[in-house]
Amino acid sequence: MTVPVVALIGRPNVGKSALFNRIVGDDSAIVSEEAGTTRDRHFAETDWAGRHFWLVDTGGVADDPRAPMDVEIRRQVDEAIGEADLLLFVVDARVGIHPSDYHVAELLRNSQKPWMVVANKVDDPRAADFYEFYNLGVGDVYPVSAINGKGSGDLLDALVEHLPQVEAEPEDTLRVAVVGKPNVGKSSFVNRLLGEERLVVSEIAGTTRDAIDTPLRYHGRQFIFVDTAGLRRQSKIDDGIEFYSSLRTRRAIERADICILMVDATEGEIQNQDLKIAALAWEAGRGLILVVNKWDLYAEKDDKASAHYQKKAAEKAPFLNFVPFLFTSALTGQRVNRVLEVVLDVEAEREKRISTSEVNEKLGELVARLQPPQAAGREVRLNYATQVETEPPTIAVFGNAPDLVEEHYVRYLHNGFRAFWGFTGNPLRIVLRRKAG
Q1: Strand 42-48 relative to strand 287-293: parallel, antiparallel, unpaired?
Q2: Cis omega (within 30 of 0) on the bond before 12?
Q3: Per-domain residue ranges for the chain?
Q4: Would you tell me which CATH number, out of the four given (3.30.70.250, 3.30.300.20, 3.40.50.920, 2.40.420.20), belongs to the domain 356-434?
Q5: pLDDT in tens, 345-403
Q6: What would the pLDDT profile of 239-298 be if each residue is shown by its tens digit?
């Protein structure tokens, strides 16, 4: 399901970044007494009372609409309002209502999105006068101090009540996110699968701004293909539209069961940004398929070209050894439909469950082949193991001293379990636990 987006909106220097840090729990946003410090946007996923949401910090809406920086910030704020499911209008309780606050309130009313007023810098709610902010025309005003945290729990309780309820999709729906950099052919690829021109295809990089859900039925299974905007390197995300495209890509990954990472064969070897997107999906526990598009245009193609490409990619990111590669051309249709079979194969591996007796038997074989390194003055034993999760597959290994098992030995177990059961296209997680008693 989609994780909602909450955006912090307000004029400069009211404490939006401090509030962002308070809610998220770190100092990822720059906080300064200088107005206008946050010129672009920061975002992070967080949660409260079991509800997850994305929190977005924006630049302050300034008074001068003609200043170039203010024009850019306003454009980014408009993007934030358009993307958000809930808006937090942050005001400065020490200053009181500022003329710019009326302007921001009008923006929020016109958006027709739900919004809340947060009166920041209220260190003592009993002594502060924040009631004038009701004149902005909102139902409730929530006093907080982003610096010391007072009132933040009450604010978050109200925030999660305002979040939209998301309907769960049918259990048999398989969500597949098509991700990758701009202009690698994602929309052309999905169109070829569907057999019709549903998505806009253009030579201009970044044509697809939103994540677009497209249903497809295949062999009795309901697929939802999500064609996402391209995820650029963070340093290249220099405007609001590209920023929100990257946020939508991350949201598409978190909603997906399986991700198809599409890369451009004409760029030669796989690029670092491709690897970062692959790692995002892998670390999120999603199934992963790597599609090398425009293979018909690959410059060094011979009968070993695909194997060589795959080997070079795995040298840069070893987890790609466990990921299926497809070499396609969305333009000609070469091997495009093959991806549907591979998706079903990866799903089957994702749902595979190994019996506890078999896991224990294989653990015994691995330990007999190579004992875990012993710690100084203490014996390290691994007693038994069991698969505790699917989607992604997770195996718990129990022993007397899990904190003393070295990382390289965990990798040995991981590779051994892979050799037995594959789990192709999926991360395999190994967790170490202390044996009871």
Answers
A1: unpaired
A2: no
A3: 5-162, 173-350, 356-434
A4: 3.30.300.20
A5: 999 999 999 999 999 999 999 999 999 988 777 889 999 999 999 999 999 999 999 99
A6: 444 455 566 677 788 889 999 999 999 998 899 889 988 998 999 999 999 999 999 888
Task: Choose the CATH number for 173-350 among 3.40.50.1820, 3.20.20.210, 3.40.50.300, 3.30.499.10.
Answer: 3.40.50.300
Q: Could you give the CA distance from residue 339 to residue 325 in angstroms, rounded to a whole number? A: 10
Q: State residue 419's pLDDT score.
A: 96
Helix and strand element counts for the chain (H, E): 11, 15
Instruction: Name the one residue in this structure whose structure tokens are 């892998």.
Output: 282
Q: For residue 375, which of 399, 396, 394, 357 has the smallest C-alpha distance?
A: 399
E strand or H helix at 6, and its extent?
strand 5-9
Residue 433 has pLDDT above 80, yes or no: yes
CATH topology of 5-162 equal to that of 356-434?
no
Query: What's the pLDDT tens digit per position in 292-331?
Result: 999 988 866 677 899 999 999 999 999 999 999 999 988 8
pTM beyond 0.70: the answer is no
SS3 152: helix
CB 194 within 8 A of CB 234: no
Closest Cα to residue 4, out of 58, 46, 32, 61? 46
Give the position of tokens 């224990």: 360
| pLDDT tens per residue, range 196-234 | 544 444 343 343 334 456 778 888 888 888 756 544 444
Cβ burial of 370 (10 Å; 0-12, 13-18, 19+) is exposed
CB 102 within 8 A of CB 24: no
Note the CATH architecture for domain 5-162. Answer: 3-Layer(aba) Sandwich (3.40)
pLDDT of residue 356: 96
Pairs from 194-200 (Cβ < 8 Å, separation ≥ 24)? 194/225, 199/227
DSSP H or E segment with residue 47 = strand 42-48
User: Per mean pLDDT, which range of 110-119, 160-169, 270-279 is the poorest?
Assistant: 160-169
Sheet with 287-293, edge to edge strand ranges: 212-218, 221-227, 173-179, 258-264, 287-293, 325-327
